[in-house]
Amino acid sequence: MASKTLQWLSLVGIIWLQSVNGTNSNFPAYSSQLKQLLSLSQIQLNNLAFASDAGKLFGFFPGIAALYFPLWLVLLIGSILGLAGYGLQYLFITDQISSLSYAHIFLLTVLAGNSICWINTVCYVVTIQNFPSDRQVAVGLTTSYQGLSAKIYTAFVYSFTFSPVKRAKAYLLLNSLAPLLVSVISALFVREVNVGTGNNMKVGFVAMFVLTIATGIYAVVSSFGSVSSRLPPLGNAIGISVLLLAPLAIPMAEKMKEKFLNGEMKVYIEENVGDHVERIESGINAEDDQTREDDGVCVEEIGAMVMLKRVNFWLYFFVYLSGATLGLVYLNNLGQIAESRGNSGTSSLVSLSSSFGFFGRLMPSLLEFYLSRSRYMKSRPACIAALMAPMAGAFFLLLSAANISLYISTAIIGVCSGAITSISVSTTAELFGTKNFGVNHNVVVANIPVGSFIFGYSAALFHRSEASEDGKCMGMECYRNTFIKWGSLCLLGTFLALVLHARLRKFYSHT
């Protein structure tokens, strides 16, 4: 098969992998039922949310494995870890096994969270290798689908279950099986392809963006109660499945194009093998030089140990902690927040946050694609500050008892935290270079489990202080102090992002 067809086919496979790899994002949809089934306290439930994020602390293992093992094996190892982590929990809550303690559940959740890192590693390596000239665009586009995972899982769970307790079990079953099945299928064509560089990928990316945006619009529209109530659950699942299969049209079209042009191109090359080929090679070499020059732009090329001594790192670390990580903690607690406010539409809220998170992750990729020819460098810290300001407002808006404020705030937090997550990849590379990017970025995102524990545990303590004797808390007081604290932290993070922007102003202002 021609290399360009394999290029696009690998991207489609990565999209499928990312679509099912956000297994931790659907935790809020079944957390209340899990709390009831396992007789957990609010603090124990928050610790399970932290356990899923704690798997990222061991994210260096798949990075090392990718250096020594075939990528298909790394992919399967990750999916098998997820099968064990979620599968054993499913067997436990369905009474198939009865010897698991809370400590076992905690460790299995850590294992399941770590499985996400293995699949992500393969996705990043293949995308960067197969799209060397458009790697930031390709990485951003594919990772946006991970923001859609909760919506996809919710659509399938609701298509064949109706009882809330059965839905909790169905989420765990799908979390264990879906990544494994998709990994087995994708392992056939998600691999490194020897490709050159060039600017002839634009049509394919435009088509991919159109399909991706259409998928996101469908996800958002079908998340609203007025639409979802009219749309049959099975029809919703079929609709999202068709949209996930739609990107296959791009490698199929590329294959047809290559077959059609193959004979004519051979004749053309034979007749123009002289100066024309020389001009093509000259143009490609010039483009390669420009690409290498652009890709090499960074504040400094340093390793993790030196990075830890830099003021810019600690500013960036706390900006991420009070932005994307804080948004993730809110989404992890969304089920309990909705329940305390008397809102029964937790699944709709999870789908809404997932859909807007999808667009949030996609936005930086779209901007990168259309502004890539501009020589002016966009300030990533300034972009993060612009995203964190509305997040702070969203937390304060949650102090309102109006039901609409919950939906508006969830949408804002979803889109802003998703965009910050996507922007952070380029930010790490620009601040500290690309040679040690894998290690450096893992150090940066170590703030996620740290923030998940600190913010989640403090929220649980506030919740418990307002709870009744049976451990339940109903009313606005349950999370009022938490929202004030989170909104204030987000404002502080906005200020720190502006400080980081000011320190890097000269770097971003050069042309």
Structural account:
The protein is mostly helical and 511 residues long. Helices cover 78% and strands 0% of the residues. The protein has helices at residues 3-21, 27-37, 42-54, 60-68, 71-93, 102-130, 135-144, 149-160, 164-186, 202-221, 225-228, 233-245, 249-271, 275-295, 304-307, 311-332, 334-340, 346-371, 380-397, 403-432, 437-444, 447-466, 477-503, 505-509. Helix 20 (403-432) packs antiparallel against helix 21 (437-444).
Write the SSE topology.
Layout: H1 3-21, H2 27-37, H3 42-54, H4 60-68, H5 71-93, H6 102-130, H7 135-144, H8 149-160, H9 164-186, H10 202-221, H11 225-228, H12 233-245, H13 249-271, H14 275-295, H15 304-307, H16 311-332, H17 334-340, H18 346-371, H19 380-397, H20 403-432, H21 437-444, H22 447-466, H23 477-503, H24 505-509
Helix pairs in contact: 1-6, 1-7, 1-8, 1-9, 1-13, 2-9, 2-17, 3-6, 3-22, 4-6, 5-6, 5-9, 6-7, 7-18, 7-20, 8-9, 8-12, 8-18, 10-12, 10-18, 16-19, 16-20, 16-22, 16-23, 17-18, 18-20, 19-20, 19-23, 20-21, 22-23
